[in-house]
Amino acid sequence: MIKVTVWNEYRHEKQSEQVRAVYPEGIHGQLKSFLQEEFEVTTATLDEPEHGLTEEVLASTDVLVWWGHIAHGEVQDEIVNRVHQRVLEGMGLIVLHSGHMSKIFMKLMGTSCDLKWREADEVCRMWNVNPSHPITEGVGEFIYLEKEEMYGEHFDIPAPDELLFVNWYQGGEVFRGGCTFRRGNGKVFYFQPGHETYPSYYNEQVQRVIQNAVKWCRPTTNAYPKYGYHQPLEQISKGEA
Amino acid sequence: MIKVTVWNEYRHEKQSEQVRAVYPEGIHGQLKSFLQEEFEVTTATLDEPEHGLTEEVLASTDVLVWWGHIAHGEVQDEIVNRVHQRVLEGMGLIVLHSGHMSKIFMKLMGTSCDLKWREADEVCRMWNVNPSHPITEGVGEFIYLEKEEMYGEHFDIPAPDELLFVNWYQGGEVFRGGCTFRRGNGKVFYFQPGHETYPSYYNEQVQRVIQNAVKWCRPTTNAYPKYGYHQPLEQISKGEA
Amino acid sequence: MIKVTVWNEYRHEKQSEQVRAVYPEGIHGQLKSFLQEEFEVTTATLDEPEHGLTEEVLASTDVLVWWGHIAHGEVQDEIVNRVHQRVLEGMGLIVLHSGHMSKIFMKLMGTSCDLKWREADEVCRMWNVNPSHPITEGVGEFIYLEKEEMYGEHFDIPAPDELLFVNWYQGGEVFRGGCTFRRGNGKVFYFQPGHETYPSYYNEQVQRVIQNAVKWCRPTTNAYPKYGYHQPLEQISKGEA
Amino acid sequence: MIKVTVWNEYRHEKQSEQVRAVYPEGIHGQLKSFLQEEFEVTTATLDEPEHGLTEEVLASTDVLVWWGHIAHGEVQDEIVNRVHQRVLEGMGLIVLHSGHMSKIFMKLMGTSCDLKWREADEVCRMWNVNPSHPITEGVGEFIYLEKEEMYGEHFDIPAPDELLFVNWYQGGEVFRGGCTFRRGNGKVFYFQPGHETYPSYYNEQVQRVIQNAVKWCRPTTNAYPKYGYHQPLEQISKGEA
To answer: From the CA of A141, how many Å to the nearest CA of chain B?
Structure first.
């Protein structure tokens, strides 16, 4: 059974009644609730020791789900490096919504990961541009969200390995809202929905995508490749043909 | 100087006063008018012998621009194969608007190239998602078209090598409206604007993109690679290291 | 259970004792033998009516495996178009070795699919350049084949969506020997090993890759997207913000 | 005229007579010698103040060429961040040979950038797998280097946006030896040749590729995109169609 760790900053929920009303168990609680149907799920949050991401926790995590927003700067560099190393070794990583500016996502992308944004209660329609991909399995032609925060292009990421969703917003913007990236032995999926004041993680299509993504992100059993000095496998002879 | 051949079906202009009012010299005439500032431009149309695309014409064409719509089926397979071979040898190809269902584009893509569409005088905003690409040079953050035909996802093309523009439409759809593809020794650019009843080819940003694309599409001087039986370049010895 | 149809030209085995000695049950027989451990497998061959690929057979096929070589030209265009349509609808396709010049692969790629080749009993080492991909699962750093036909660059395919293996040959050539492509709702995998006089399909790593590829290629349940005229999902109002 | 800054660590040349014999003017001197035919070229080295990469120098650099090896760790993080920011703003970056482990390349890639290596005076043949790309212009089917350091897969980089060269080595390895990446508004090219004891930068094909790459890497005039809060461009009405 795939082992999932859901990481949440868990600050908005403590500070805002409005957010708490939407996510009374925290965003991590809601994510856990629909992931635990299929996977072995634990949670971790910013204010735990080592942010809940000890060596032991990460060593037994197949896929890490990441939600953060107002406290990206408080995540310790040492822990970011630890997560980064685990991704390169093969751990899957699903970065949600405002996690686009988390230290771990920026470190993996190598770009600013910046974008345009607006909170205006507007419709978001996420078009499926890759219907053959296992992450879009069962989703159909688009995901409809009555209200979502606008995230608009230009989104400063490397060209994704695979583009799965393109978002439409009422205000006139578009956004690459579902993207895959491979880094080292690990797989990364970025998914746009999840503003803290909107109930996006109760949406069944959104849930389905995150469930699909966990399966897609799971590590292979391939060992981390060997690097450094390499003995020749063939005789290095000088004769030309 | 780059040699451009602008190919136009040239039927709408003859059949419809409305289209003729927009493009009195034909769509090819308008495309030629802004391309000839920088390039050596000739035109060819469906009803000419061999559709104006003789062996001689193609042999001296660096970049072919293609506009077609209601008469895709009338383009002879022999001419399609001839154009296809030239693309593989290195000739650039720019496919505009409804050319997405032309025989030559479908043959190069290997898919149905189908899409959703609607004519409803709606705003199209083409967001630049690749500002470092020479084809988007000088275009800025987006191209604004007051009226354009809606082309919507799913667009049944292979994942483009590079995605340059994503279109937003008032009716709620998005579209990958600027895409590059490499085929053989040749380069292909698909660009969405250009419904026959709208003045999109008078738009300076649209013109700039097509001009940029001609430069990007020009052939390299690399010879067509050699295929078939190949003598070993190194001695095939059996000794292991 | 995934339904696999293994298609084989089945001519070499009838014409050559040398090939028959390697594959007494035909290449399709050997492919079936290791695929049937996990999947529901049937076979089809060129000389059967409709090449064994009737509408009924294809309708119940999740993944089609294709081996052909000396009789590509005998495959009827009608059957090629039928297979092509099924791939666009979602059927997976695994193209092996000399299938690179089959009509179906060329039609899906849009290029000549040509390459350099040589039969010289030389070592082929297929390096895994994508260890996080499910198709390379369990394969390790490389696949070692004591003897395989040399296939060398330039390989005239579109840039693959994902590059999985790069082959090294004793004679001095390299080859992109494991490549994925998405076409329509379907997924395609090209894999180089399998010259008819060498026992490559008895190699456990090669078998593992083909088994992995069947799983990767299986269709999603997403319906084939709707194309054509599309009603607006949002009110098309003319008011600017 | 494109402004190029060639940056060299410039340590091997001072420490080793063998290297000095190959590059008496330093590696940067040799790179400058063939780039200044077409471009405005200056040089900068590690031991200059701010490594020669002041704000002023970078502000007037269109394309930065980077060679480093034994002193990656001595490059100050502040300068690395400055170069990184300039790449995101549009400056081109060409990373040569052992620069694969430079701080700036690792920061832009987000991976370990590690690989296999061996110094054994062996033949390197770099196959051109993208003959339509302007960086391979004029190079033909392959680049032949009588002696080059072996760099072997797995090379821990993100999947390149474009793969241009695949290297073959006598000892049995392959390597993705020419790769492009887009980061922010900037373009990055990695190119394998250039071990300090071999005369690779005197090879005319190698020189041609680096010259081509400078042109390909030059910035567009597109402004750095605007990020942050964004006013709606369209009226956000709630009416459904």
So the answer is: 8
* CA distance readout (Å), B238 to B151, C122, D171, D174: 58, 8, 13, 19
Contact B134 D220 (CB under 8 A): yes
pTM: predicted TM-score of the whole model, two decimal places = 0.97
For residue D241, the 8-state DSSP code is -
Interchain CB contact of C231 with B (< 8 Å)? yes
Amino acid at A171: G
User: Which residue in B237, D185, B231 sits closest to A239, CA to CA?
Assistant: B237
And the tokens for B197? Answer: 């009843």
Instruction: Name which of D19, D110, D134 is nearest D67 in CA terms.
Output: D19
Residue ranges of domains in chain A, CATH in brackets = 3-111+177-217 (3.40.50.880)
Q: Which residues of C touch A221 (CB under 8 A)?
A: 137-138
Handedness of CA A98, A99, A103, A105 (dihedral sign): negative
Window 44-83 of D, Cβ < 8 Å to A: none
**Tens-digit pLDDT profile for chain C (241 aa)?**
999 999 999 999 999 999 999 999 999 999 999 999 999 999 999 999 999 999 999 999 999 999 999 999 999 999 999 999 999 999 999 999 999 999 999 999 999 999 999 999 999 999 999 999 999 999 999 999 999 999 999 999 999 999 999 999 999 999 999 999 999 999 999 999 999 999 999 999 999 999 999 999 999 998 889 999 999 999 887 554 4
Q: State the ipTM, two decimals.
A: 0.96
Is A239 in contact with B235 (Cβ distance < 8 A)? yes
Phi, then psi, of A72 in degrees rounded to 5:
-50, -40
Distance CA C72, CA C95 (A): 13
In chain B, which among 159-218 make CB contacts under 8 A with chain A?
159, 162-163, 166-168, 172-174, 176
